[in-house]
Amino acid sequence: MSGTEQASRPPAEHEAWRRSRWEEIAGPNGKAKVVANGRVAGREPRTVAGVPGRWSVTEAGALTVTATAGDGLRVNGEVVDGTVEVPSGSSLELPEGRAGFAGGADGFYGLVVMDPLALERSGLSGVDAYPYDPAWVFEGRYRAAPEGRRVEVGRLTSPRSTEAILAPVDLVVTIDGTEHVLTVLEDMPGQRLVVFTDETSGDGTPEIGRWLVLPPLDPGSAVTVDFNRATLSHHHLSPTVFTCPLAPAGNHLPMRVEAGERALTRGSDA
User: Fold this and answer.
1) Burial class (CB in 10 A: 0-12, 13-18, 19+), 224
2) Beta partners for residue 124, in sequence order
3) What CATH fold (topology level) applies to the domain 31-119?
4) Strand partners for 155
5) In terms of C-beta density within 10 A (0-12 exposed, 13-18 middle, 19 or more buried), how is residue 228 classed?
6) What are phi and psi of 55, to 5 degrees?
7) Kind and range of the H or E run holding 145
8) How many other CB atoms are there within 10 angstroms of residue 71's CB atom?
9) Quick one: which of 35, 36, 33, 29 has its CA closest to 89?
10) Residue ranges of region Disordered (predicted)?
11) Over the stretch 246-267, which tens digit does the pLDDT of each residue have?
């Protein structure tokens, strides 16, 4: 069967993944609705853009917020007027109909705020992708990295910045007889992320590269590497909110990876 004929009939599993991917973007808690996020660590009180109050972590590692009733912040339905503890998983209610949640552990927390009307205002209607092609599915493996390894990676802040991000393993995958070794980042606990560029970057796909989200398996484990599931970074949904990492040095594939997501589509693009 030719690649073109096979590509015209993606498997049901891939179609299900595409639906779940759109749910991740546009569903009730979709990332396209995120209008603010931030990280909180350390005992020094700090503000998070778009979120009322001053946030900090206690000596015991608990997240707290200090606000007045006039700030219009509710945690788990209760108005905040003073300093309160915010358990991981707490729901947040904010002015103008915005809502969010707080999560984390061990003294490191994240806040996410969503606006239910953000998707409608953006006009986002879908994600354009290359046709499914089974030739872009490989079996790779995780290779151990030095314990605690961190790599210096660019981040899409304004202006651009760099950060040493945990990189617990490498992904080894053979494409057309050539072995490629890609650095795997763990920018969020439990999430394995390969940020890569290829010869389509800036010529068919975003110049900043794309993502492969992989499972958190042990070194030596086999892992399916499906470039049909290469995604756009969250940065495209809201550049000021999602300051995503760029591809580490060496994470360039010297070929056109014509698989996976290409661009967001807006209502006017239809």
Assistant:
1) exposed
2) 266
3) Tumour Suppressor Smad4 (2.60.200)
4) 161, 245
5) buried
6) -115, 145
7) none
8) 18
9) 29
10) 1-21
11) 999 999 999 999 999 999 998 7
**Residue 226 to residues 128, 132, 250, Cα–Cα distance (Å):** 17, 10, 19
Contacts of 268 (CB under 8 A, 6+ apart): 123
Spatial distance between the Cα atoms of 162 and 249, rounded to a whole number of angstroms: 12
- Give per-residue pLDDT as tens, 20-76: 999 999 998 899 999 998 889 999 999 998 899 999 999 999 999 999 999 999 999
Q: Closest Cα partner for 14 from 228, 200, 255, 249?
A: 228
Which whole number is the average pLDDT over 6-19?
84
pLDDT at 8: 56
Domain boundaries, the chain: 31-119, 124-269
Between strands 108-114 and 99-105, the pairing is: antiparallel
The whole-model pTM stands at 0.83
